[in-house]
Amino acid sequence: MKAATVIAGPVTARDPFFDNAKYLAIVLVVCGHLIEDQRDHPLVHALYFYVYLFHMPLFIVLSGYLSRKFTFSAGKARRLISTLAVPYLIFEVAYSLPRLILYGKFELSLLDPYYLTWFLLSLFLWRLSTPVWQQLRWPLAVAVALSLLTGLDKLPGELAMNRTFALLPFYVLGLMLRPEHFQWLRRPYMRLAGALTLGLGLAAALLVHASVPTEWIRWRLPNSAIGVDDLTGTLIRLGLLLAGAVLVAAFLAVTPARHTWFSGLGTATMYAYLLHGFVVKVAERLGLGLPLSILLGVATATLLCTPLVRRLFHWAVEPRMSWAFTSLRRPT
To answer: Fewer CB within 10 Å: N-end or C-end of the chain?
Structure first.
């Protein structure tokens, strides 16, 4: 995922706002995965529920916004393959190897993503669909309708279909956003409103988390599998979509717009996303507790975004694939 650019004359510079948002978002993702195994504790479960309401929607909204110029050009198609399709294959295999080492079995289904690789597959499909959404009169309404319909029946596990459709509105929302929307969020009074909203969201999560099944925030099962009728399930899903959108807006409102010490780290969040799962698998066996898990999450997210890690794992996360493509010819 690339940060947006601000063009001034012939010089193109990154907008640190988006890099800051992506870094802070990946910290939430890593911390959320590290505390997942401790959800039997009420406080941890509440924090887990709260973070999962908006951390992936945040990433998806940013991905949609930064995909607005995606077209079916040869160059964009090649980038789609080299930054999403090939890393997906690499990490599907990589995350299947521990099961071979620990349990003596190797299971690999390239169309049924394992663990956190679902996001790569879903983002691949969302980006392919970008030109379609840009032609519709009411794209967000259509995306929300598809998301709600997803809950009526169990879709095949292949291509992460349930999550791909259920979380689609956040990608389409990102496509619809314009720079002026983010400028509006950066106003001082919006920063205050965002902080209050995040605080109220946390308070609400502390109050309701025990009565809300965790599967609602994972977006991978139909209404019947969670134990509700379709009318109730549709209303809950609509409420979760709205809550996610509001919390994403609040989070972006409090995100620093200036250049910070972690702005550069926000350019490499895909490294942290794809690699942190190995740290999580080890940490699950250590029983670290909430404070240490959060500290480890911040440290892991930060370390995995550093230039050293990018150099070491560039071959897997951003492989150079020019050798696999034919040369681009300019039309005569």
So the answer is: C
**Enclosing H/E stretch for 14:** strand 11-14
Residues 6+ positions from 231 with CB-CB distance below 8 Å? none
Neighbours of 270 (CB within 10 A): 24
CA distance 127 to 68: 9
- Lookup result for tokens 């209303």: 235
Q: How many CB atoms lie within 10 A of CB 179?
A: 11
Q: Residue 223: helix, strand or coil by DSSP?
A: helix
Bridge partner list, 11: 8
Phi, psi of 199 (to 5 degrees): -65, -45
Q: Among residues 243, 246, 216, which one has the least CA distance to residue 228?
A: 216
Chain centroid to CA 47: how far?
Answer: 18
Q: Which residues pair with 329 in a beta bridge?
A: none
Q: What predicted TM-score, i.e. pTM, was given to this entire model?
A: 0.90
Q: Is the dihedral of CA 209, 215, 216, 219 positive or negative?
A: positive
Q: Using CA atoms, how far apart are residues 98 and 103, in angstroms rounded to an integer?
A: 8
pLDDT in tens, 18-52: 999 999 999 999 999 999 999 999 999 999 999 99
CB 48 within 8 A of CB 32: yes
Query: How would DSSP label each residue in 82-93?
Result: IIIIHHHHHHHH
User: The tokens 């951390």 sit on which residue?
Assistant: 55
> pLDDT tens, 242-295?
999 999 999 999 999 999 999 999 999 999 999 999 999 889 888 889 999 999
* Residue where the block lists tokens 């039309």: 331
